[in-house]
Design goal:
By secondary structure, this protein is α+β, with helices and mostly antiparallel strands. The protein is built from three helices and four strands; from the N terminus they run ααββαββ. It folds into two domains: 13-82; 91-196, Alpha-Beta Plaits (2-Layer Sandwich). The chain has a four-stranded antiparallel sheet. α2 crosses α3. The longest helix is centred in the N-terminal third of the chain and has 73 residues, at 10-82. It starts with 9 loop residues before the first helix and ends in an 8-residue tail after the last strand.
């Protein structure tokens, strides 16, 4: 404490003010700067975490949009394919629809169809069930080729799973038009109705 009656010269006052300023600076530097640095680091950490979270949210939004667009595209493709599946409430009905499609194709191709053997795995619990029809067609080369083309371009999506070609009458004279016999197995898809699906 200053002694009463002691007067400070302007120089002493400046020295005292400078000392007080230095002491305040030391206090602020010793306590305030580390606290400020700690706050700054915490703020940067929070900002980094927020940026990472925002990036995750944006990526999730992009993925969700892509999945939604992909689902819509798949649904459209499925709806387009639905019209090519075999009609029928039962596997037997689907087999009859495929046999009818083969008969119609043979009429357009002007070939004769013999017996049609329908095979369906009625015990299958799959949603999309393959239906098979084995057929024997008799006609000339052009007629058999037209039959295959008619099946491929018909309204039902089919696949030829078996095909063999033989002369219908090997002993026929050379001057007679050759008649061929084609044995083919045709597969078509049948979509099981929801009520038909197994639980």
């Amino acid at each position: 404490m200053m002694t009463p009656g002691l007067t400070l010269t302007p120089r002493d006052r400046r020295t005292l003010a400078l000392g007080a300023l230095v002491m305040s600076g030391l206090l602020i530097g010793g306590r305030g700067i580390p606290a400020w640095r700690h706050w700054e680091q915490a703020a940067f950490a929070r900002a980094d975490a927020a940026a990472v979270e925002l990036a995750h949210q944006r990526a999730a939004l992009v993925d969700e949009r892509a999945m939604h667009d992909s689902l819509i595209a798949r649904r459209k493709r499925l709806d387009a394919l639905r019209s090519t599946w075999l009609d029928g409430d039962t596997p037997a009905g689907a087999g009859a629809a495929l046999a009818s499609a083969i008969s119609n194709a043979s009429e357009r191709a002007q070939v004769t169809i013999g017996a049609l053997d329908i095979r369906v795995d009625s015990s299958s619990s799959a949603t999309l069930v393959p239906v098979y029809v084995h057929a024997t067609a008799t006609g000339d080369v052009q007629g058999i080729a037209n039959l295959l083309a008619a099946l491929e371009s018909g309204p039902v999506a089919v696949a030829i799973r078996g095909f063999s070609l033989d002369a219908a009458d090997p002993g026929a004279p050379p001057n007679r038009a050759e008649v061929l016999r084609a044995d083919l197995t045709v597969e078509g898809p049948w979509h099981r109705k929801p009520m038909e699906a197994s639980p």
